[in-house]
Structure formats: C-alpha cells, structure tokens
Design brief:
- The chain has one helix spanning 36-50; strands at residues 3-5, 8-15, 18-26, 32-34.
- The protein has 70 residues and is of the alpha+beta class.
Length: 70
C-alpha cells in the first residue's frame, strides 16, 4: 500500500519479510522502482543537495533547516 509523504508516495515490496524494492512516485508520474541501497543512496544525495531548504510555495529558497518526513 503506498504511503503518501507530502507531494509524493512511497511503496515497499516485501518478499519473505525483507524489503526488495522501494518505489517513489511524485505528482501522478509513473512509479520509479529502486533497490533499498539505491533508495538510501538517492536519499543521502538529496539530503546533501537540498537538506538546507524547506518547501515554501514551490520556490527553492534556503531555509537553514531540513525537516524529513517520517
């Protein structure tokens, strides 16, 4: 079942209790399937690049603080 996190959704596919695939979908686009390692690497890249910004009406002004969705 997809979990909505802000303007995007995340879904995990589990096989035998282990996460095998993680999907992300934003604004009605197609699902992008990643391995857990790829998803973690992408998340780290996004935090490094965008972690100092907060979303504010679709602009990218630095906010000095990053709040992650749980």
């Amino acid at each position: 079942m997809p979990e909505a996190i802000g303007p995007f959704s995340v879904e995990e596919r589990m096989i035998d209790g282990d996460t095998c695939w993680i999907a992300i979908r934003a604004r009605g686009a197609e699902w992008s399937w990643l391995t857990p390692a790829e998803a973690a690497h992408l998340g780290q890249q996004w935090v490094r690049r965008y972690g100092h910004m907060l979303p504010a009406d679709n602009d990218c002004q630095p906010a000095g603080l990053f709040i992650a969705a749980e």
